Amino acid sequence: MSEPTDDAGCSGGESFALRVRGDSMAPEFAEGEIIVVEPEGLAVDGSFVVAELEDGWTLRQLARAGGGWELRALDAACPAVAIPDLAPVRGELTAAKH
Q1: Do the Cβ atoms of 50 and 37 come closer than 8 Å?
Q2: Confidence at residue 4, expressed as pLDDT on a 0 to 100 scale
Q3: pTM given for the model
Q4: Cα angle 94, 95, 98; round to 5
Q5: Pairing, β 68-72 against β 48-53
Q6: Collapsing DSSP states into helix, strand and coil, what is residue 36?
Q7: CA dihedral 20, 25, 26, 32 (to 10 degrees)
Q8: Alpha-carbon span 56 to 29, nearest angstrom
């Protein structure tokens, strides 16, 4: 996933676009596809979200897991990432250009 830059010209609450890198979310989201993210969107179980993790930004499906959450790729070969709360979530996906 292309990481947003600070000079993108958007305020913290404005929607922003990112380019998908990799194939972990195929076939729903293909490499090179542009996605639109709403930072103030309501992230709920099953939402596609963008999260900022230690190793960078990632597009994943949000899922309830016990008392916390998981970020899951659509590719079953990619391990889920456990998160205790929604703090790493930077926004909900609102549109994609196929």
Answers
A1: yes
A2: 55
A3: 0.84
A4: 155
A5: unpaired
A6: strand
A7: 0
A8: 18
